[in-house]
Design brief:
The complex is a heterodimer. Chain A contains 26 helices and 2 strands. By secondary structure, chain A is mostly helical. Classes of the chains: A mainly alpha, B mainly alpha.
Chain lengths: 637, 170
């Protein structure tokens, strides 16, 4: 095994976060030094991981790093390893980008809060925990990092302690989140009892041929555990509370990064460790959960009155897309899921940051109290529109391409298997996308457009330090939408190949031919060829939009002469208005879709009643979900 | 618990006096011998940190406030964690992997100093847990002390002026 210098990069990336967290504690109240330390602590890992793109993504190398040089002896991995294949690096990059941008945003953003020192300690702990999960090659270390991450996130949720909602949300998060952690721990214990090893590569070689009933239980527990971390369907109310209460820069991490560790865990468990993804029952389980999360959360989002809670429900809805797509178990499906994962991190991060800017400028995120901010905060409005277009899947932004891939993957799966069920999944995906657009029209209307509220006269754009990270995110949204081929070639396809072919992952860690001797019944889970049919050329779409924009501008400019004619105040008009002065009347965003809401009132009312906000209820949901998943796995695997 | 319960007890105080050194010595013993006997940095650190509780039982919040500095304790904890990472990084500096034991041929097996970097990392863990758990205990006690009705719990009047202020008749 060669020891190039970049072998050390993953471990240094993880350790930089933790060292940064502790140095921030030492800085105390010296704000400038603290910001420098925190800035370095988020930039160094990003740089290190970016340097790994060349060897891992392009050259297809897999980095296996044994802590303390404890390499496997006689085919048993006793030491702790860091294993970075293209899939790990994909998620690592996603984490590093979101953490760096959100970190720089929060320098300005948390100026309004007290206890700023502990903010960065917890922030860097959370980042380090997430980075540890995605880069680790050891199942127990993943659990430890899961706990580090969860507790840091709970602490950050309760960061604004003056807000009783924040404390309540943190408590819910702590209790229901611990169900997930406990499931994961129990699953890991069962796997360890069976395989006598915790190394991911070795388990992937030993476990798939030994699916005893105990292992079915372990699979169900790990699935539910990681599912809880990704806030999939029955666990979703937590996310709404936590996002609503946490500072926006933390919401970016919880929605963009924290949930992705759950997705990463599900990929590792289903495609690598147990290789149960070939089983149709598991595919259906994942797809059904994905579709329900998608649909339920988007309808819940339509009903929300708080900007950040609405975004939180959308976040789970997008996670539903990712899970559905991963559940298809085709190359296109996995590619679409991973692409949507990185896109979701970017556009949802952008949207949360704009919500944070609105909160920063006005002190509220309650939709009914906002309105007409486009006049006062034009820059934020543009950024919001970029994010809203991206999430609704409007070309040329990135959401379009990944959603297109997902539609195509589900439809192709339907053509392949001849099963109408998958075509229905496509329909659910499209309907969800439409409703996403609808709810962003609502947000845009009630926050940024319409009449300016009199009390918001003083609002203004956030300072440059907050705008620059948002611009970078918006640029990345446009970039990954305009140049999907670059994204596919350099990031997505290597990651899909890593999921497709597990053998190199095992052999690099355990020595050549280890997989061939232990994994006798190896069959690739899916066809490795990634083919995207259909005409998609972002530039032609861009041209279309440019033409449409030019037409609108032309009409607008032509009509300008009429607009300059001002109506003279004349009492003769008063007869049409009842003689009253025009007064402030803002069509609230909630009223935009009143017909739609009225027709769906039974469903929406039922949903609102079910989401009680009581911790006990959510706990019952979580435990029911766990029981159902276990029963399902025993019945069908 | 009764609200006006006061720990003004000579017996508790003299027991705390006697047990405090024992707890701390035992804690440091377990930390130091972590590499050759059961226990280790974490267990020893918790044992030694129990000294904070003994101090509280004997002398109340005031005794703690005069003996220990919470802010400093918090920073020392960070230093303990940084020391651990530093000893881990020594492996990289020496040309091996992270956490590699670079002093592996130090002393014969069974000696106190026989495990090289591992012992140093163990001491760092012990220091971190000692300060970390100590800080947690201090935090809990401080919260107790600020609760209404508990202002003077476990504190002993030291001056006549104070006794007058509290209205103690003894």
């Amino acid at each position: 095994m060669t020891y190039d210098v970049y072998m050390h990069f993953p471990v240094i990336a993880i350790m930089t976060f933790f060292v940064g967290a502790f140095i921030v504690t030492l800085c105390g109240s010296k704000e400038k030094i603290r910001n420098v330390v925190a800035g370095l602590a988020v930039l160094i890992p990003l740089t290190l991981l970016a340097l790994l793109i060349k060897p891992v993504m392009v050259d297809g190398e897999i980095i296996v790093y044994w802590m303390g040089n404890w390499e496997p002896v006689e085919g048993y991995a006793i030491g702790i390893a860091i294993e970075v294949d293209a899939l790990s690096l994909f998620f690592g990059l996603l984490v590093a980008i979101a953490v760096a941008l959100s970190g720089f945003y929060s320098f300005q953003y948390i100026r309004q809060d007290d206890a700023r020192g502990s903010y960065f300690t917890l922030y860097l702990m959370l980042s380090g925990g997430v980075m540890g999960i995605v880069l680790s090659g050891d199942l127990f270390n993943i659990y430890v990092m899961l706990e580090v991450m969860t507790f840091a996130a709970v602490g950050l949720t309760a960061f604004r302690t003056w807000n009783p909602n924040a404390r309540e949300a943190a408590f819910k998060y702590l209790t229901v989140g611990s169900v997930g952690s406990t499931c994961a721990l129990l699953g890991i214990a069962l796997v360890y009892a069976q395989c006598h090893t915790l190394n991911l590569a070795q388990i992937s070689a030993i476990l798939p041929d030994n699916m005893t009933p105990t292992m079915v239980l372990a699979f169900a527990l790990l699935f539910a555990g990681f599912g809880c971390k990704s806030f999939m369907f029955p666990f979703h109310p937590l996310a709404a509370d936590a996002h609503g209460a946490a500072p926006s820069s933390v919401s970016v991490l919880i929605s963009g990064v924290f949930t992705k560790t759950g997705v990463y865990g599900i990929i590792r468990v289903c495609y690598f460790l147990f290789r149960t993804m070939g089983n149709e029952a598991v595919q259906v389980l994942l797809i059904v959960i994905g579709c329900i999360s998608m649909f339920v959360c988007v309808t819940m989002a339509l009903n929300q009155h708080d900007f950040k809670r609405l975004l939180a429900f959308h976040s789970i809805s997008q996670i539903g897309y990712i899970l559905t797509s991963l559940g298809l178990c085709t190359a296109l499906g996995v590619a679409g899921g991973l692409y949507h994962a990185i896109n979701h991190t970017l556009f949802k991060g952008l949207l949360f940051l704009t919500a944070g800017s609105v909160l920063y400028a006005t002190g509220t995120t309650y939709l009914e109290k906002l309105g007409g901010l486009a006049r006062k905060m034009p820059k934020t409005t543009i950024l919001f529109l970029v994010g809203a277009f991206s999430i609704s899947g409007i070309p040329p932004f990135n959401g379009f391409y990944s959603k297109w891939m997902i539609y195509q993957a589900t439809f192709e799966k339907s053509a392949e298997t001849g099963n109408i069920f998958y075509a229905l999944v496509t329909v659910v995906c499209v309907v969800t996308s439409v409703m996403t657009l609808a709810s962003f029209v609502k947000v845009g209307h009630s926050v940024f457009f319409g009449q300016l509220r009199p009390e918001l006269e003083g609002a203004k754009d956030p300072p440059l330090g907050m705008r620059v990270p948002m611009w970078i995110m918006a640029a990345l949204c446009a970039f990954s939408g305009l140049f999907p081929n670059i994204m596919l070639d350099y990031v997505i396809v290597p990651a899909v190949n890593a999921v497709y072919n597990v053998i190199p992952y095992i052999d690099t860690a355990m020595g050549a031919d280890y997989a061939a001797t232990h994994l006798t019944s190896y069959m690739p889970l899916m066809n490795g060829q990634l083919s995207v049919i259909g005409a998609w050329s972002p530039l032609s779409w861009l041209l279309l939009f440019a033409i449409a924009l030019a037409a609108v501008l032309l009409v607008s400019l032509l009509g300008r002469s009429n607009r300059s004619v001002t109506c003279v105040e004349d009492s003769k008009h008063a007869v049409f208005f009842g003689g009253e002065q025009a007064e402030y009347s803002h069509a609230a965003g909630g009223d935009l879709f009143w017909g739609f809401k009225h027709n769906l009132r039974h469903y929406l009312g039922y949903m609102s009643r079910v989401h009680t906000g009581v911790t006990n209820d959510y706990m019952v949901w979580a435990l029911t979900a766990l029981a159902v998943i276990i029963a399902y796995c025993f019945a069908f695997i | 618990m009764k609200k006006n319960w006061k720990k003004d007890d000579l017996i508790v105080r003299s027991l705390a006096d006697n047990y405090l050194p024992i707890a701390i010595v035992l804690g440091f013993y377990v930390i130091l011998h972590g590499n050759i006997s059961p226990g280790g940095g974490f267990q020893g650190g918790v044992l030694a940190a129990s000294g904070v509780l003994l101090l509280y039982l004997g002398y109340g919040f005031r005794g703690i406030a005069s003996a220990l500095n919470m802010e400093r304790m918090h920073k020392l904890e960070a230093i303990g964690a940084l020391a651990y990472v530093f000893f881990g990084l020594l492996g990289i500096f020496a040309g091996y992997n992270f956490c590699r034991n670079i002093l592996f041929d130090s002393g014969s097996i069974g000696d106190l100093w026989s495990s090289g970097t591992i012992a140093l990392m163990n001491y760092a863990v012990g220091f971190k847990v000692l300060t970390g758990v100590g800080f947690l205990l201090l935090l809990i006690i401080a919260l107790l002390a600020t609760e209404p009705g508990h202002e003077h719990d476990g504190t002993i009047t030291t001056t006549e002026q104070e006794a007058l202020e509290r209205g103690d008749s003894e």
